[in-house]
Amino acid sequence: MFVFVAGAAFLAGIALVISIFLIQQIVFHSKVIIEKQSTIFRLDKNLESVDELKKNVRVLETNSALNSVKANSDNSALQTVLDALPDNPNADAFGASIKNKFVDTVEGLTLDNLSVTSPNSQGEETEDNDSKSADSSNTLSFSLEVSGSADKLRELLTKFERSIRVIEIKSFEIHTSEDKLSLTIQGAAYYEPAQNVHLEKKVVKP
């Protein structure tokens, strides 16, 4: 009798262990199926957006406003968008662009001072700066001082206004000294870091 009871208890224990194992496997495979379905859903949504994205790109390629301000006639209209909002700060190139494409193209204008501050050289961030938006960190600050006649200074400001590159004039001051005017500009240009699109690998644990 004792042997029978012990054997029954042993079999019941084995059955319980097997039942727990099967339940764990069912739960685990359910998690895997849910994650797979979620991935399939996201991929389907992305595929549905492809045609709309292609359509929008074709529309931009024929956009008259973008084509009218191309830096080079051989460039596509989409290049204008990239020129307006580059994917990296490149402070040196921006400073050279201000000199070559703005100041030097206004005859009779003298460049007195130009400085460009890249994001990495604006000082360490404090805890108070943690609340700043992401856009504020994608900024190149610059200071420009030029001198010339009133008409030349006005022409320079007009060039900034019509610039393809997104440039914000935060403040400017005009000073008179002897027979010329001096213009000091504090401004900022913006850039948008490139976005990486990739598939992630997710491990589902039991």
What is shown here, in short?
This protein is an alpha+beta fold and 206 residues long.
- Strand element count: 4
- SSE series: HHHHEHEHEE
Q: What is the highest CATH level, the class of the largest domain?
A: Alpha Beta
Under the CATH scheme, the architecture of the largest domain is 2-Layer Sandwich
Q: Let me know the average pLDDT.
A: 82
As laid out across the biggest beta sheet, the strand order is: 1-2-4-3
Largest β-sheet summary: 4 strands, antiparallel
State the helix count. 6
How would you classify the quaternary structure?
Answer: single chain
Cα-based radius of gyration, to the nearest Å: 32 Å
- Per CATH, what is the topology of the largest domain? Alpha-Beta Plaits
Q: Summarize the amount of helix as a percent range.
A: 40-55%
CATH superfamily of the largest domain: Ribosomal protein S6/Translation elongation factor EF1B
The helix/strand class is alpha+beta
Distance between the termini: 41 Å
Number of domains: 2
Instruction: Label the overall shape.
Output: elongated
Percent strand: 15-25%
Return residue spans where pLDDT drops below 50 for at least 5 consecutive residues: 123-135
Task: Note the main attributes of this structure.
206 residues, alpha+beta, Alpha-Beta Plaits, 2 domains, four-stranded antiparallel sheet, 6 helices, 50% helix
